[in-house]
Design a protein that fits this description.
With 355 residues, the protein is of the alpha/beta class. Helices cover 51% and strands 12% of the residues. The longest helix is centred in the middle third of the chain and has 23 residues.
Length: 355
């Protein structure tokens, strides 16, 4: 398998660009397509099948959040049995995540058609959940070969998915800014992505069918994923992956809830990055503004609200410390437990008290 270049995937961007899918498939010399999607994507899958015709040799419609091991196995078997030479991932992070698990083991390339703002399509980061734990890693072979961004495909997103996947993308930007290996190019992309998302999300909450703002949000998500792809993840993503996969919490909602808290945890230790984020947001304090933005777009604000149990907090804090990773502020199990206790009930004083 030939990995994607260091410059990242080829990007096709614009309203109606899904129509370019057959040309992309042909241009790269693929002939046997396996479509990967979630159970709710019947109409989009049918549209892709109509466009691709007899190039389609298999359709896997069972993608699930956090990529459970048994789902990944089923998708890999289908890819092998159908002799597919490319996957077309249609949907959000769940579909793209399952495609990445297939690519990781089989080497089958991915053409991604994202329909949310997860940004996963721009990263070489994969995740797989087995025996109650979510494992993540990096491999250039899971990075899609081409990403087709069609803002029209996001017009049907619910307000909640728009809000939560948008905040998920903002989390990419924030962590890219304070990453241990942040660089001028990643910071530039992160700041531009942050500005686009923070501006477009409130407008979309008021006018969901605004095509211009849908385009801005999708471009922001692209930049967010591209920035995160080049740096090491820190507390926010490690914590979200740990508790999301281990306790089966909804992925984007977990990011949305935890973002202000993890930003506050790192506020003082990552002063310059947080100051840059605040300037991009046009405010004095970035974590406090993230609380305000969440409320404005009606995103969930507590872990309890999205299904976590209070009795799981000690185990979650312990799991977050099982593997070492770089983070601006020192990591301790006690401090992470305090963060989770505040996020569990939505105690935003944790975020604002030191602002």
């Amino acid at each position: 398998m030939t990995p994607v270049s260091n410059d990242g995937p080829e990007v096709v961007f614009g309203a109606g660009s899904l129509e370019q899918l057959p040309g992309v498939i042909d241009r790269y010399g693929y002939s046997k397509v396996m479509i990967v999607s979630t159970p709710g994507r019947f109409s989009l899958t049918a549209k892709a099948e109509s466009l691709l015709g007899d190039r389609v040799v298999a359709v896997f419609g069972g993608a699930r959040v956090h990529v459970p091991h048994e789902i990944a196995d089923r998708a890999r078997r289908m890819a092998f049995d159908s002799q597919a030479d490319v996957q077309v991932a249609l949907g959000g992070g769940s579909a793209i995540g399952v495609s990445k698990s297939v690519a990781l083991d089989t080497g089958i390339h991915i053409v991604a058609v994202p329909t949310t703002y997860s940004g996963s399509e721009m990263t070489p980061i994969w995740g797989l959940t087995a025996e109650g734990k979510k494992l993540t890693g990096r491999d250039p072979n899971v990075l899609p070969r081409v990403v087709i961004y069609d803002p029209d495909l996001t017009l049907s997103l619910t307000a909640r998915v728009t809000a939560c996947s948008g905040l998920n993308a903002i989390a990419h930007c924030v962590e890219a800014l304070y990453a241990v290996d942040a660089a001028p190019d990643t910071s530039k992309g992160a700041l531009e992505g942050l500005t686009l998302l923070a501006s477009s999300l409130p407008r979309l909450a008021a006018a969901p069918d605004d095509r211009e703002q849908r385009s801005h949000a999708l471009r922001g998500a692209m930049l967010a994923g591209g920035a995160l792809a080049k740096v090491q993840m820190a507390l926010h993503h490690k914590l979200c992956h740990t508790i999301g996969g281990s306790f089966d919490l909804p992925h984007a909602e977990t990011h949305a809830v935890l973002l202000p808290y993890t930003a506050a945890y790192n506020r003082d230790a990552a002063h310059d990055a947080m100051r840059a984020a605040a300037l991009a947001l046009g405010v004095e304090d970035a974590p406090s503004e993230l609380v305000a933005l969440s409320r404005l777009i009606d995103a969930p604000t507590s872990l309890k609200e999205i299904g976590m149990r209070e009795t799981d907090i000690p185990r979650a804090a312990a799991l977050a410390m099982e593997r070492t990773y770089p983070n601006p502020a020192p990591l301790t199990e006690d401090r992470i437990r305090v963060l989770l206790e505040a996020a569990f009930v939505g105690d935003t004083e944790y975020v604002t008290r030191f602002a």
